[in-house]
Every structure is written in structure tokens, then in C-alpha cells.
Amino acid sequence: MNFCRSLGPASPCLSAFAAGQAAAFKMFETINRKPEIDAYDTKGKVLNDFRGDIELRDVYFTYPARPDEEIFSGFSLYIPSGMTAALVGQSGSGKSTVISLIERFYDPQAGEVLIDGINLKEFQLKWIRQKIGLVSQEPVLFTSSIKDNIMYGKDDASMDDIRVAVELANAAKFIDELPQGMDTMVGEHGTQLSGGQKQRIAIARAVLKDPRILLLDEATSALDAESERVVQEALDQIMVNRTTVIVAHRLSTVRNADMIAVLHQGKIVEKGRFTKQPILVHI
């Protein structure tokens, strides 16, 4: 350091030290930060009898990065155990925000998110997330084998468990056709697989949890028609006897839902179920 000072205040050596000091400050600030929603906190409720009723009750919410833009202002929604509910509406209406609140990626500023009548904040976060399966529009795959990517859903899963999940996800056929089968490397971000294959791997990972609640956030919107058909067949299999929340734009994704809720500017403006006519039957 003394040598750097001897070179003068404009030396590249001093600039490198200053940049390193600034980077270290940010790094230690991040390490020492205490998150409001701590996934590693072992305190909280764990239920023996978990049904999967979902209720958002009089919820007020804004994203931390956009505090002046209110998403929900007294939003309420009830989804009984075992029901498939579809949320539709234009972009920015609050559909994906419902998913984020149920997963407890965020907490509402006011109101409650309830699971089986208990405030989500009272549950042990790691435990409740194990009861929830999430399949999003862009599946996150890691640079490892297909088997390892599926096992992120359940670390202690046996090969029999994995095989059942793969069958339910309609992924067994294409995996068996690969030269290394389950041990095939997916590449960085799954680049060695097609969109439909990546999505079915993500579905298998969600199914491996055997979740009581299943969240599908635009799970087929990025796929072509043939891939969508195959993935939708897989989703139809795993939605049986689970509380399912679907966020979608395509009619083919939501037509079998027990309830369709139309969202507009953070409010439910219409609710019903699909009929052959282009209208909703109100329920």
C-alpha cells in the first residue's frame, strides 16, 4: 500500500484498492443484512393436517422498488382446498403478484394471506414452501444433470420417487431417448434442452415435492403449440386433488379451471367458469 502511495494519488494501484474497498463494503453489507422474510428461520408453525385452503383477505400491497405504484388496495380472493382457480387479465393487473404473495416472496403492507385459515407469516417458511410447488414461465435449470435438477425439489428423494415425478410430468419418453438418460447434462440455463423439455423438467421438480398447493405462473406461454399440448397434458395430470392457482393468457390453459377470476388494476372485476360460449358463467 505504501508503494502505491509513493506512485501518487492518480496511480492505477490506488484506484484498484479503492474499487476493492468499495466492493468489499457492499459485500459485507449484504452478508450482514437481516432479511425481513428469512427462509432459514426455523421458528413457526408446522401442521400435521395440511389441506391447502388459500385466502387473500383485504390485501394492500406495493412492491418495495415501486412504493408509489399500488398493486392491491383491499384485494380479496378465496380458493378452497382441491379447487383449480385461474387468474386472467392484462399485464400489470396483479396476477403474478398473487403467486408471489402465496409463496411469501413478499408480505402485504396490510391485510392477510391465509393458508388453512392461518396467517402465512406464522408458518415456518421453509416448511410451507415445501408444501407449495411453483412452475413459472421461464424455468430455472442449473448447470448439472437432469436428475440433479429434479432433485432440487426434494433432496432425499429416491430414484423411484424421481421416476414417478418424471412420468407424471410427461418427461420419461424424451429422457429415456437421451444417450445418458437422467445423467444428461442440461447445459448452462438448460441450453441443451428445448423449451418444452425444460418446462417438463421444472414440472417434475415441482411434482417431486408432492405439493398440496400448485402454482402455475404462465407455465406454457413461452412454448409452441405442440410443446404446449404436451406440457398441458402433464399439468392436467398433476393438478388432480391439489389446490391449483393458474396465471395464464391462453384459453387452452384455463378452460378446465373450476373458477376463472378476471383481474383489472388489482381488482377482481368478473368471476365464473368457462363454457363453450365466449362468456363466463358467474359463480
Kindly describe this structure.
The chain has two domains: 2-32, no CATH class; 83-105 and 120-282, Rossmann fold (3-Layer(aba) Sandwich). It has helices at 2-6, 12-32, 95-102, 125-130, 146-151, 159-168, 172-177, 195-208, 225-238, 251-254; strands spanning 54-62, 70-79, 84-88, 110-115, 118-119, 132-136, 213-217, 243-247, 259-264, 267-274, 280-282. It is globular, with a radius of gyration of 23 Å. 33% of the residues lie in helices and 23% in strands. The protein is built from ten helices and eleven strands. By secondary structure, it is of the alpha/beta class.
Cα-to-Cα separation, first versus last residue: 73 Å
As laid out across the biggest beta sheet, the strand order is: 6-7-8-3-9-10-11
CATH superfamily of the largest domain: P-loop containing nucleotide triphosphate hydrolases
Provide the CATH top-level class of the largest domain. Alpha Beta
CATH architecture of the largest domain: 3-Layer(aba) Sandwich
Order of helices and strands: HHEEEHEEHEHHHHEHEHEEE
The total of beta strands comes to: 11
Question: What's the number of structural domains?
Answer: 2
